[in-house]
Design brief:
By secondary structure, the protein is α/β, with parallel strands linked by helices. It contains 5 helices and 11 strands; from the N terminus they run ββαβαββαβαβββαββ. The chain is globular and about 40 Å long.
Length: 200
C-alpha cells in the first residue's frame, strides 16, 4: 500500500483513478466527484490535484459521519455532508460523473451506498468501489471494523459480498457494467463500473 496524492491506495489503484479522471475530462469536459467515506480527505485532495494537472474543471462533494473528516481549507465549491451515508443521501443534490464508494465496508452499507447514491450518477458516468479484492477462495478475508464511534458494534469487510448481492459482479444488471477490476492482496483492490442506463 502506498500513501500518495490519493491517500491509502496502491500504485495500480491510483493509476486507475488517474485514467478514469482523464477519461471524464475527455467525455464530459469536467469532473464531478462524489466520495462516500472521506476519512481524512486525501482522495478528494488528489482529485483536485489531478484535475489541475490535466486542466479540467472539477466539483467535489463528500459524505462521512465524522465532521473532522471534512477537507482542511476546502475549495470554495466543495460540499461536505456530515452523517451516516444511509441517512444523509437524501440531502445530496445534483449530478456526478464519478461516485467513489469507500465508506463503511460492511455488506449492508456497501449495498446501500450504491443503491442510494448511484442515481446521482449521470448515464455514462462511473462508480468506483474500493477494497474489493477476494482471497484465494473468492471471498474477502474478515477484517473487523470498529464502529464504536457511531454506536455500532464491529463489522467485517463485505464490499465484495455487497457487489455480489446487488448483482454487479455477475453482470446481472442492465444498468451497470464492470469496466475494470484490480485485485491487490486480500483487502485492497478496486472495481470500476460504468452506468449504462438510468435505474428503472
Amino acid at each position: 500500500m502506498s500513501d500518495h496524492k490519493y491517500g491509502m491506495m496502491t500504485v495500480k489503484e491510483a493509476g486507475l483513478l488517474d485514467e478514469t479522471l482523464l477519461g471524464l475530462k475527455e467525455k464530459f469536459g469536467e469532473i464531478r466527484f462524489l466520495e462516500i467515506g472521506t476519512c481524512g480527505g486525501a482522495t478528494t485532495r488528489g482529485v483536485y490535484q489531478r484535475a489541475a494537472e490535466i486542466g479540467c474543471p472539477v466539483h467535489c462533494e463528500g459524505v462521512d459521519n465524522m465532521a473532522g473528516y471534512c477537507l482542511a481549507d476546502p475549495p470554495g465549491d466543495y460540499k461536505f455532508h456530515v452523517g451516516d451515508s444511509m441517512d444523509i443521501w437524501s440531502e445530496v443534490k445534483g449530478a456526478f460523473n464519478l461516485l467513489f464508494v469507500d465508506g463503511c465496508h460492511c455488506v449492508n452499507h456497501s449495498m446501500c451506498d450504491f443503491l442510494n447514491f448511484s442515481p446521482f450518477v449521470v448515464t455514462g458516468g462511473y462508480c468506483l468501489f474500493h477494497d474489493t479484492a477476494p482471497n484465494a477462495n473468492g471471498v474477502q478475508g474478515e477484517w473487523p471494523q470498529n464502529h464504536d464511534y457511531a454506536g455500532r458494534p464491529p463489522s467485517v469487510l463485505g464490499v465484495r459480498a455487497g457487489l455480489q448481492k446487488t448483482g454487479m459482479l455477475q453482470g446481472h444488471r442492465k444498468d451497470w457494467e464492470l469496466v475494470s477490476e484490480i485485485q491487490e492482496g486480500e483487502l485492497m483492490g478496486m472495481c470500476l463500473f460504468r452506468k449504462l442506463l438510468p435505474l428503472t
